[in-house]
Write a structure and sequence with these properties.
With 102 residues, the chain is mainly α. The protein has 3 helices and no strands. The protein is elongated, with a radius of gyration of 20 Å.
Length: 102
């Protein structure tokens, strides 16, 4: 159900997203005593905050890159950073897959 109009959601993907968020974050909020009529607004602001945080992280990385791109060792540091990020992402992915399989 759409949290605002109480009608069925038009797309299965959107429904799955709402259900996953409700089951995790909204479920935790309900467990600590937040009234039902406040769950969806809390869920909206939580999700919005996550997205804004991601955009700010990308903007900060871009600003750092712009500030340091003329630095002579930037090419080597860039390559090392890319490998470090890739390695960390692979590690996190594998640990999550292993946790779901267990």
């Amino acid at each position: 159900m759409d949290p605002l109009s109480h009608r069925p959601l038009p797309r299965p993907g959107l429904r799955a997203w709402f259900e996953a968020r409700r089951a995790s974050f909204a479920g935790a909020l309900k467990d600590i005593g937040l009234p039902d009529n406040h769950l969806w607004i809390a869920l909206f602001f939580f999700s919005t905050g996550v997205e804004v945080g991601q955009l700010l992280t990308v903007a900060l990385a871009w600003l750092i890159h712009r500030a340091l791109r003329s630095w002579p060792a930037m090419a080597q540091a860039r390559l090392a950073t890319l490998y470090a990020i890739g390695t960390l992402a692979a590690y996190w992915s594998l640990t999550r897959i292993a946790a779901m399989a267990a």
